[in-house]
Amino acid sequence: METRPLARKLGAFMALSEAELCVLERLHKRRRTFFAGRDLVHQGQADQAAYILVSGWAYSYKILHDGQRQIVDFQIPGDFLGLRSVVLHVSDHSIEPVTDIEVTEVHASDLFKALSETPRLATAVFWTASRDEAMVVEHLVGIGRRGAAERMAHFLLELGARLSLVGMGSKAGYACPLTQYLIADAIGLSAVHVNRVLRQLREQGMVTFRDGHVTFDDYDSLVEFADFEESYLDQVGPTAQVSAPVLARVA
């Protein structure tokens, strides 16, 4: 049976025991489906549960007073949605599905109980939160200091690295449901500029984004062009991944 994306992701940081994986599995008991284009979390919403994204893509965003949208990040399977709002009690951003998504709803009491029972699992979840913060820092640097083409290249490479961690991407490429309008609101460009930059990168033989699929035509050249240093994602943790048979028993 296929391993859950969150278990695969946390397993890249530390080898989780069978007991820890069972605790993690208990967090998946409330399954819910949300449809594309309809917010599941609203900015300012109080006492919001967290979610674990099981399938599909979503994005976190804020709306400015003049109506402009800034996308903070995209979420892929294995990511937490609204984890910060569990601690702050009020959501500081909205979350909308890019595609139809399946999630598991995690109440604050269940999450805190699970983490108190398994301190190592709590450490792994803290790693995911720290990793998300590191990505936000990189996005800020990208918008503030990188040129448009370098920013786009870095964005596509980061998505690829994140997807590879949960078995959905590789250095060859990955399926990507994002529109140019969504990408534009994430990296601070207009949709027209996004189209122009993607054409430039394709014509330079580095990457092609067409028909919902990103193809790395020359991965190494793209990495060099974007000055992409994967260490901020901390893809490999201090211990080896737990073995597949153990994961399969709780998947």
Report on the structure:
The chain has two domains: 142 residues, Jelly Rolls (Sandwich), CATH 2.60.120.10; 86 residues, Winged helix-like DNA-binding domain superfamily/Winged helix DNA-binding domain (Arc Repressor Mutant, subunit A). Helix content is 45%, strand content 19%. The strands form three sheets. It has a four-stranded antiparallel β-sheet. It has a four-stranded antiparallel β-sheet with strand order 8-9-11-10. Helix 4 packs across helix 5, helix 6 crosses helix 8 and helix 7 packs across helix 8. With 251 residues, it is of the alpha+beta class. The C terminus is likely disordered. It is built from ten helices and eleven strands.
Keywords:
251 residues; alpha+beta; Jelly Rolls; Arc Repressor Mutant, subunit A; 2 domains; 4-stranded antiparallel β-sheet; 10 helices; 11 strands; globular
Q: What is the approximate shape?
A: globular
Averaged pLDDT: 87
- In terms of structural class, how would the helical and strand content be classed? alpha+beta
How many strand units?
A: 11
Question: What is the string of SSEs from the N terminus onward?
Answer: HHEEEEEHEEHHHEEHHEEHH
Kindly report the CATH topology of the largest domain.
Jelly Rolls
Q: In the CATH hierarchy, what is the class of the largest domain? A: Mainly Beta
Largest β sheet strand count, sense and barrel closure: 4 strands, antiparallel
The largest beta-sheet arranges its strands as 1-7-2-5
Low-confidence stretches: 237-251
Count of all domains: 2
* Cα-atom radius of gyration: 18 Å
Portion of residues in beta strands equals 15-25%
CATH superfamily of the largest domain: Jelly Rolls
